[in-house]
Design goal:
The chain is mainly α. It has 16 helices and two strands. The longest helix is centred in the middle third of the chain and has 22 residues.
Length: 346
């Protein structure tokens, strides 16, 4: 997150592009030393929020291209404004996939250090597990992921009811058939990914469609790339409305994900961009969560269940990406859930 001092400095640089550290120090009224400012500027650069031009005394600071994408936004403050009061990027941003995300590192050095240490812990943990124990832990995670992913979509099954359904095929009283089918489809799809870990290598439109098809089986939903307009609840963001552009954007997303070297970036990009493109009439976010996990699994990384994320917070973070193309809150959710998964399941 950005603290108050960092926010003041960023605001000053936004209003005064290409300024030196001395000009910043003289232009802001903060009670700290010049040395403290230099450390703060370095911190902001490491967070990918600032860029430097020149060297030595000629060094100038500018807001980085990643600023709008990565700068933390307080969701509580943001959502104090109602849907029609918020100033948003109303239409699909083609440059986001073509240019912005292609040239930006989503994770800071600090982020990657944490994630890589967690991944190492995961590798050490599973190396000590028997095959039976490993499968048991994957089963537990798959149940939790099926439950939470469905809950985010409005499913009312509890975690215990979900476990009973998936293990014993016993439906819960007072629940609809569609809710049970949604959960069973999740589990079947996750099992498919576990049994075929390389299926999404490389990522392609047809394979994303396959995952979507498994997730919506017997739910009466339309398959394949949509050919009509859809709206998104809670926002005035308008997804693309013709199948050619949808297919093209999804193809570009696959190319972007495939060209990224960092596995965590691949997984996070899949999580947010499939949801942003909205390629299907329904089932987009659940498809995104499974594809994101499939990418982690295919690279022998720890999958995530999203079990402890609040469903409303998840939706708000996703809407924030739609409206502002800001990934900070979804990135925080991803990192926290990866940490939870490593520490909980293996």
């Amino acid at each position: 997150m950005v603290d108050k001092k960092e926010a003041v400095v960023l605001e000053f640089i936004k209003n005064n592009p290409e300024v030196s550290s001395k000009e910043i120090f003289e232009g802001i009224s903060l009670p700290f030393s010049y040395a403290s400012l230099k450390r703060l500027l370095l911190s902001l650069k490491l967070k990918n929020l600032l860029s430097r031009k020149g060297r030595g005394k000629a060094t100038k600071y500018v807001i980085s291209p990643a600023y709008a994408l990565l700068c933390p936004i307080d969701m509580e403050t943001y959502y104090k404004k109602e849907i029609d009061q918020r100033v948003i990027k109303e239409n699909f941003n083609f440059q986001l996939i073509n240019e912005t995300l292609r040239n930006i590192d989503l994770f800071t050095e600090t982020d990657l250090k944490k994630l890589n240490l967690l991944q190492k812990k995961y590798e050490n943990n599973i190396a000590q597990l028997s095959e039976t124990a490993r499968k048991k832990e994957l089963e537990r995670l798959a149940i939790d992921l099926s439950w939470k992913s469905s809950q985010i979509e409005g499913n009312t099954y509890s975690l215990l009811e979900t476990e009973r359904l998936l293990k014993e095929k016993e439906t819960a009283s007072g629940k609809t058939k569609e809710e049970a089918v949604m959960l069973l489809n999740h589990k079947e799809t996750i099992d498919f990914i576990i049994d075929n870990p390389d299926y999404l290598l490389p990522l392609s439109v047809s394979k994303i469609e396959d995952i979507h098809r498994l997730l919506i089986k017997d739910l009466g939903l339309e398959k394949n790339i949509r050919k009509r307009r859809v709206g998104v609840s809670g926002t005035n963001y308008k997804p693309l409305d013709n199948d050619f552009q949808i297919y093209e954007s999804l193809s570009m997303m696959c190319e972007l994900v495939n060209c990224k070297e960092n596995v965590f970036e691949k997984a996070l990009l899949s999580l947010v961009l499939i949801s942003y493109i909205q390629p299907f009439v329904d089932g987009n976010k659940r498809t995104a969560r499974i594809v994101s996990n499939a990418i982690l699994i295919s690279h022998t990384h720890c999958p995530v269940s999203f079990r402890t994320v609040d469903s409303i917070d998840y939706k708000k973070a996703m809407l924030l990406f739609y409206e502002q193309n800001n990934i900070s809150n979804m990135k925080e959710i991803f990192i926290n859930q990866f940490e939870f998964a490593v520490n909980t399941y293996f």
